[in-house]
Description:
Strand content: 35-45%
Radius of gyration: 13 Å
Number of helices: 2
Largest sheet: 6 strands, antiparallel, barrel
Distance between the termini: 28 Å
Oligomer: single chain
Structural class: mainly beta
Strand order of the largest sheet: 1-2-3-4-5-6
Number of domains: 1
Helix content: 10-25%
Order of helices and strands: HEEHEEEE
Amino acid sequence: MSIFQDFLYENKAIGGFTNKEFKTHFEYRVSEGNAPRQGDWGIQNGFEHEIAVCDGSVRFANVKKTVAYVLVGQDDFTGELIVEKWAIKHNWKRAEAA
């Protein structure tokens, strides 16, 4: 099952937002530590959410009201996490997730 099916059919998505810079829509859920390719790595590194991406994997993130801090990689030499700050606009959010 793809991550999109998991988000949509198992009703795990807790919200959706648009990246203001690129006008792309994403849905996200609370990280359960069972990401398809990464397991619980995100939780171990302080990321509360998983954002569904097109290749069937997730990006770990901390989604706030107007910004999302999204893990986009890890420096090959230093091992430091590369985190981008995305300006976002929430399109929807589940009431119990507020």
